[in-house]
Structure formats: C-alpha cells, structure tokens
Amino acid sequence: MQKILKPFLILIFISQALNIFAQRKDELEQNAYDLLNYAQYAEAYTAFDQLSAKYPKNIDYKEKLGICCIRFAEKKDRAIEVFTELKSKTKNPLYDYYLGKAYHVNYKFDEAIPLLEGFLANINSFKPQDDFDYKKDAELTLKNCANGKELINNKVIANITNIGKPVNTEEDEYVPCITTDESIMFFTYRGKKSLGGKQNGKLEPDEKNGKYLEEVYVTYKLPDSTWAEPKSVTSVNTKGNDAAISVSPDGKLLFVYISDTKNPGDIYVSTLEGKEFTKPKPLNKNINSVDFWEGSCSISADGKSLYFASERPGGLGGRDIWVSQKIDGDWGEAKNMGPSINTPYDDDAPFIHPDGITLFFSSKGHQSIGGYDIMYTVKRDNEWLKPSSMGLPLNTTEDDRYYVINSKGDKGFFSSDRGGSGGLGGQDIYQVTPGILGDKPVIALLKGVIYGDDKPVQAKIEITKIIQKEKIDPITSDKEDGKYMLALSPGAVYNIKVSAEGFEPVSEDLDLENLDKYMESKKDFYLYSQAKLSNTLAANNNKTTENSTTNSADKTENTPCNTNVPLPDFSILKGKSLNNPEVYKQLIETAGNYCAKKLIFKVQIAAYRHPKNYNYSHLTQYGKPEIVDYPDGITRFTQLQFNTIKEAEAQRQKAIAKGQTDAWIVAFVEGKRYTLEELIMLDFLGKSIN
Asked: What is the number of domains present in the chain?
C-alpha cells in the first residue's frame, strides 16, 4: 500500500507546484502588460526582461521588452539589439518599423531612414492587429530624422544641468513654474509622498495595480543659489490629480491642473493670500470645455492674456495652443493661435515671457527631432514669427516640455525624462544657460517693499500706460512683508499708483519708452496716513524754525556767511557716496548750517528726457516747480530754494512724505549746477563764492 501511495502523493505535489508556477507566471505576465498599458516603462522593462529571460522562445515578451527599451531612455540603446535579433528570426514587417524607431531614439538617423521608408513601402501588404496608426507615426519619425540631421550640424552651445536634490529624486518631478525673478519654483511631484498612496482609476486605494497621483510642491531659492527642501502646497493638494502648470510673474496666482473620475482635466487658479494659497477655482467655460482636456497655461505679465493648451474641436490636430483675452474682469472667447504656432501634431505647454512678445511651447511638429521638443517664437508687428527649435542638446529624441525662463533670459528650466545628463530617475527638472538663443528679452523688473507709516503694508498697485491710456491688471503687495514684484515691457510711459486703506495714495511715472536692455531696479514706496503727514509737516516746520533761530544767534558770534570763518573740513566725506545714510547724516552734521552769499540749495524732484510724461500734481502744494532743459538732453525739475542744506533737507522730507521718494538736493553757485558730491570735492568752492 505504501509503495502505491508514495508515487501518488508525488504526482499531487508536482501538480500543485505546476499550478502555483503557472499562477505565478500568469500574475507576472498580467503585471507586465498592465505596467506597459499604464506607460510605466521602467517597471514594465524589468517585468518583461524577467519574462523574456525565463521564456526566451516567447516572441511577444521579447517584442514588448524592445518597446519598453525604446520608451525608457535609460535602456534605449538595448532596443537596437532586441529588434535586430527579432528581425533576424522573423519576417514580421513591424520589426522594420520598431528597429527604425530604435535607431531614431539613439540619434542614428541615417540607419533609421531606410528601415522606415521600407516599412512604409510595404505597409499595404499587411494589416497590424492593433489600432495604432503605424503609417502616421513612421512618417512623423522620418520627419524627426530629417530635422535631427539638420540640427546636429547646427548644434547649440548650452550648459544643461540636472538641478539635483533636494528637488529631484528617484521619483517624478516635472513642470517647473518660476516667478520671474527666479526666487520661487512650483512644480509637480508624483511618487511615494503623494496623498492617498497608489490609487486605481476610481481614485480608490490599490497598492497592487494602482499608481501614484500628482501633487503640487514648492521650493525657494536660498542665498547660496541652491534650492530649499520642497514642501507640499497643502491648501491646493487633494487625493486626486493636482498638478502645477503655471504661476504669474509676481507669484500671486498659481494655476493648477485638476482631473477626477468625472473630468478629463481642467485648469484652476489659486490666489496667494498672506502666506497661503486659496482653494483652487475653475476658470470659466471659455477656457475649460465640457468634455475635452485642458492642461497647461501661461498668463501674460499685464494679466490680460491667457495662453493655454486644449484638445477641443476646431484645432489643427491633437493638442493646440489657444489664447483668451480678459474682458470685464474675466476670460473672453478663446481663439486658436493658428498654423503659425499649431501643427497637425500635438502642441502644448505654452509660456509667455513677461516681455509679452516671446513665446515658448513644446511641439511634436515644427522642427521636432522626436516626441515633444521646445520651440520659441517672437511677435513682430503684431504677428508671430515662424517658430524655431531651441536645438540640440536642449531638445532630445525624448519628450522635452514645460520650458520657462527668468525675466533676464540668462536661465531656463524644463523637465525631461532623458537618459544620462545626471538624471535621478523618472522625470527630472533641468536648468539650461543661456535661457534663450539670440537677443535677450527687454523688460523692466521692479521689486521692493511698500510701507504704510514706515511699516510694511498690503497695498494695491495700479499701472497705466499713459500715452496709450491702457490699464494693466492691478497687483497687491504681500500683507505681511509688503513685498511686491512688477514686470513691465518697454515702449511706454507708465503711471504707477500705490494705495492702501487708511493711507494717502502716491503716484509716480516711469519712462520705459526707449528701454533697450534688461533692467532690474529696487523701488520702495512710502504711504502715510493723514495723521502721520500732519505730524511730519509740523515737525519739519518746527525744525526749520529752530534752524532759523540758530542761524540768527550765530550771526553774533559765528556767522556762517562771514568770510573770516573757516569752512568745515570735508576731507572725511570726499569720495564717499551720499546714498549711504550714515555718510549723508555726517554731511548734514558737518555742513548743514553752512551758507554763502552766492550759494543756494534746491530740491530736485525729477529728471526726464520726456518731461511731458512727469506728473507733479502731488507736490503742487509747495509751489510750481522750476523746469530747465539741460544740454545733456535731460529736463530737470526743482522746487524751492534755500540758504542751507538743513533747510533744503526739511523740504526734501516733505516731498518724500508725499511719495516723491527719489527727491534729492542739488546746489547752484551763480546759476551753475553742482551735485553735493561735486561740491564736497571742491570744498564748497571755499571763499571764492563769498
């Protein structure tokens, strides 16, 4: 009995082992195909590599391994090996196509072209089993090869670096969105830290077959030019897909892409209030269509134009770039940007530079050498010029998207899944210098703090193009630190009005009509309440009275205008900048009460090449300015005249209190103008003016 039972038990054991083995094979196979269908090519590569090694006679495993190699940048060189082997073993015409694709992604364009041409010549003799349009893709890849050969001969000199940790990790980081001064970067993260963990298509937890969803993260530039540890933007993120897609130049508006089980994807906007962003709100129906994807955008610096990508009908094919203008505070009907920008292929990820005339975007058409490539165009005479590729090595045969540059144009940022280049895994964010080919953008970037009664305050900044009589969307300063940032394009004279509740508004003109290069300037604004203004004026009047009394007393014993009295010693002030508050204070103490018979001091309130653009209505209470055209082409505005610097300083403070923060003092000797620095170097001209 035992001799019969033992072989029987062995057969049962073998049968169970085979079932377990078959089950493990089925699970491994299903997992591999699921990963491929989810476009998780790195993981799918590992799974099919294992299957192919265990079952070398299975042609389909080997084929899917090769497809993963083509689409997984780190293993693309192996794709040539895999499809060369498959092509030698079978006459399947698709292997000409795949081997041609393998050569293409490895920049072997001359080897790819005959294979793809041969595939197209024979495509009518067979019908592929799936619905993929091989003919269309092969034709596009041939165009990519031709573009690649041309761009290789005109390779661009650029320095591309992975920005590294702590921003980039072995997981996915992409879509960099920078403020125009490059101080803040928002980006999209997908990985182990994603809220909700792995989820399925119904947004339900699914550790086995689910995938991580997108989240919005932010990092800040540190003083040593490195990036701080990124943090989740918790007020924006949910357990669904939340992706950063754009930020306004001043960092106050954050645009995000949100999709869920009912929505293929729409564009939302969140507003910075204090240190937190508000809950995102969807843009109106002119931007977000009912049934179609919208997933990238960029707002102009003046807040009036929104460029975005959409798959809605009415385009030229695939994704197209559209533009909407703000009308009565909301976005108007969107218009397709037409064939000068869009192609029959996908065009996506627009970024409009703050100069308003330089547009970057990613395209599978134009001069693409494969996948999405970064293009740029410039507006001339209200028309967009033919887009140009940013060239090699910025563009690759992989996807290169979401390109942004800073206001100066010397740095660009983009995301890519390219192999090598210091990639840490998945999608990474890269920096490139220079940020733009050819001429740099021309723009004025104003940054500073707005004070209310000498403390930082949240204020409204209204900007108007004076000659064009065109208003720009107002911005606000931060309510905690009073900081603001403003990007203005050239070719106009701007009036900048700053106001806040409880304070007297100030207004100032800025002439950028002839600006021909990038300009960055620190500009603080000072607002004062009516009570503070009254106290300041009273204090200045008392100070002037005290100075007059002191001067009268001095006439008895030490009259400043008495030619027998020695001049102050200016040696400690010579060669020093009066922009230094301590040096200026020393001047007031040293020579504040000095006077001479032919020496007068005036408060200069402005200097312009286009004097008609200066509005001095905020200072008319002190009298009409004296306006003089000088031989250097600059018209200078001065107000009142005084015998001493101290008296002039009291008036300068009044002008500052009214918003003329750049008022300063100049001297005149017998009608000839001197700066105070010049007069110091001449020892105030000594006794020659007495």
From this structure: 4
